[in-house]
Amino acid sequence: MNSRRAGFSLVEVLVVIAIISVLVALLLPAIQSAREAARQAQCQNNMKQIGLTFLNFHDARQQFPLAFTNPNTGGQNNWAPFVFPYLEEQNLIAGYDLKVDWWRPPNAAIAAKQLSIVQCPSTPEPNRVQNKPESKPPNKVGACGDYFVPAGVHRDINLTLNPDEQISPTTDLRGVICWYGPLNARNRLVDVTDGASKTILLGECGGREDVWRGNVKFPVAYTGTPRVRARGGAWATTDNAYEIGQTKAWDAAFGPIPGQVAINNSNEWGHCFYSFHAAGANFAFADGSVRMLDEEMNLRALADMVTRAGGEIIGN
Prior knowledge:
Elements: H1 10-61, H2 80-83, H3 107-111, E1 129-132, E2 140-143, E3 147-148, E4 150-153, E5 200-204, E6 211-213, E7 216-218, E8 242-244, E9 280-285, E10 290-294, H4 299-306
Parallel strand pairs: 4-8
Antiparallel strand pairs: 1-2, 3-5, 5-9, 6-7, 9-10
């Protein structure tokens, strides 16, 4: 009696493999998209929590913190150690001395902590460290973050704006969280006359201290020619905040910054906003709301959202 072993022919196996390959190719973008959506949602949640700490601080003190404190009245510090105690995890900042510079003991050990609350999940290498050499030790060392407060709009933005979009020399270009100055001893919600729901409090500038121009990374190099640094990487640094609208690189030999001033063009200090999300970046507004803005949005409209009292009329 003849018997035959059941099995698959080579052609059938190849067909099955081809079908599986096609299915994987179809599913992979959907999986990647779902993962990015989850990362974006986590990023927005981080910003929501930080934005609420600013409002809680304001409720308690009747003012927001400064982006860069008055160096003549204590240590040089930014906004972070002021609002972090209002997070549920208050131990993040326990022991921080506001009368001491952020990079000196005892603050140095705290500034070196990697904090997930200031890290965007979409940013490559989230646990980055700034280690900027100083002429006199210690170096300015700190764990990096991906969020910053725009201190305002720099008048250099007029070099990029179209003639009919130029900002008037009399316009108040300060941001919600501006740094200390003779005309800015404190920041208050009442100063946000453009409307809290339409004024940016916190934005993304991911990947610092490395420089990202478009999708191209230039690793940080504090020495050599050219020197490469996005500046402001550490979450505790007083370089965290900046005025948007500039095209100057940290080292002139590495500049000017190419491309148009726009969201996701470059993460260098003074330029604009930068994220690793597709087609935009996340923002927390002065009313506590969080939303994404498109990277192709009009630059003048973006600048209007940064100023707290520019007097612009911003639609929905």
